[in-house]
Design goal:
Helix content is 23%, strand content 30%. The chain is α/β, with parallel strands linked by helices. The model has no long low-confidence stretch (mean pLDDT 96). The structure holds flavin-adenine dinucleotide.
């Protein structure tokens, strides 16, 4: 008797999991149950080309409907899985039905962190996680209108860049001392602040939001620097929280993410999990991590598919990420936390292209490359191989990146 695999969440990881399961010859039924109305789609364009109106839904879906029909994938959309009955291998659905499974994959992702501030319920205040959020924001974009972005992380800065390109007057309010503080070195933050200022975006760091004011719709953002910043729209981007409640209620191990082993297995051998919702032990960094990236969603989903098909393929991929702002493509390889030295390659003060290499004990652990794909690619190799490098050569932009190895 062939088995049924149910995937919860029509997510990025689900898109990969489906393909990998069929590629590996999963013979049974595959059903995806997702609470959104769409086939699995890519979220990165949501704050970039999709928000800019340059890409449509058709452009961002991971696979078109005929692919799924051909691969015999069933979708149950607009449906939420409310509970997992592990003893009876049954799912309770929001439409009142139940669904049996043999194997289960949780790819439930994360949701936006909400702020609890006075006036947050006013019209014109948005978060940005899914297609519907972006459609609502798009309906409010207008040349010369004021946008205030709360949060100077990737999502906030990408949204700022996109709205600015649409002709809006944009202010970014960041509570910490510098933008992208949690993930990059001061030199990289300074660079991004400079470019945003050159593009006409006002960046305010070290400023907290006290609340939102307006009559029905938001009109201004009151801050702890004593100012009220005018706003026709506000977009809040202050991080995400993993969707762990379903797993937790079912008794699976959860610790800031659904805990999985190197095979993407949860504490129940018949349930795997992948993507933003998971926490795993990373071999390269010898640390427990919950990653929020396409790389992790895709690579972990491939591992999960192998596990479901009876193969043991450990997850040991190097984390990487990217962010597009204006003409800048930032590519990040590795994790910089714990670095003790930064080497800058290129002119970050006067140009729009450079790379920051993060070292610990003389070994490269991460790289942030802005419009420097060669440094990004080489950085990945150097990190993976823990290669010793000549620091002077690395800092010398005239020296080809391939020549920085120590013999
Ligand atoms: C605006 C934006 C820009 C980004 N830009 C980048 C970028 O440039 N580079 C990069 O690497 N990453 C980027 N990311 C992050 C990346 O998109 C995520 O890491 C990735 O989408 C995570 O995929 P996932 O499979 O874990 O889950 P998600 O894509 O979050 O999907 C989870 C799905 O599960 C559904 N779900 C949850 N609970 C249930 C339930 N109980 N029943 C049914 N369905 C459920 C949710 O509704 C959702 O549809 C960006 C994210 C956003 C929001």
């Amino acid at each position: 008797m062939s088995q049924t695999c149910i995937i919860v969440g029509a997510s990025h990881a689900a898109g990969q999991l489906i393909s990998s399961l069929r590629q590996k010859g999963w013979p049974g039924r595959i059903m995806v149950i997702g609470e959104e109305s769409y086939l699995p789609y890519q979220r990165p364009p949501l704050s970039k080309a999709f928000l800019a109106g340059e890409k449509s839904l058709q452009d961002i879906i991971i696979r078109p409907a005929p692919f799924y029909e051909k691969s015999e994938i069933e979708f149950m959309l607009d449906t939420r899985v409310e509970a997992i009955d592990r003893d009876n291998k049954l799912l309770k659905l929001s439409n009142g039905a139940t669904q049996a499974y043999d194997k289960l994959a949780l790819t439930v992702g994360a949701r936006v962190r909400k702020v609890d501030l006075p006036g947050v319920e006013l019209e014109g205040i948005f978060y940005l996680r899914d297609i519907n959020d972006v459609e609502r924001i798009k309906a409010n974009i207008g040349v010369g209108k004021q946008a205030v972005i709360v949060g100077g992380g990737y999502i906030g800065l990408e949204t700022a860049a996109t709205l600015r390109k649409q002709g809006m007057a944009v202010t970014v309010i960041e509570m910490l001392e510098r933008v992208m503080q949690r993930v990059t070195a001061p030199q990289v933050s300074e660079f991004f602040s400079r470019v945003h200022s050159e593009e006409g975006v006002k960046i305010l760091c070290g400023v907290g939001v006290d609340g939102f004011e307006g009559n029905g719709s938001v009109e201004s953002v009151a801050c702890n620097d004593g100012n009220k910043y005018p706003a026709d729209i506000v977009v809040i981007g202050v991080g995400i929280v993993p969707n762990v409640e379903l797993a937790e209620a079912a008794g699976l191990d959860v610790d800031n993410g659904i805990v999985v082993d190197e095979y993407a297995r949860t504490s129940d051998a018949d349930i795997v999990a992948a993507g933003d919702c998971t926490r795993h032990h990373n071999v390269l960094y010898d640390r427990w991590l919950r990653l929020e990236s396409v790389q992790n969603a895709s690579d972990q989903a491939m591992v999960a598919a192998a596990t479901l098909c009876g193969e043991e393929k450990p997850y040991n991929a190097l984390p990487w990420f990217w962010s597009d702002q204006y003409d800048l493509r930032l590519q990040i390889a590795g994790l910089s936390q714990g670095y003790d030295e930064v080497i800058i390659r290129g002119d970050r003060e006067n140009s729009r292209s450079f790379a920051a290499f993060y070292l610990k004990d003389g070994i490269i652990i991460a790289v942030d490359a802005v419009n420097r794909p060669s440094e990004f690619m080489m950085g990945k190799r150097l990190i993976n191989n823990k290669t010793l490098i000549d620091k002077e050569k690395l800092a010398d932009i005239q020296m080809p990146i391939k020549d920085v190895f120590l013999a």
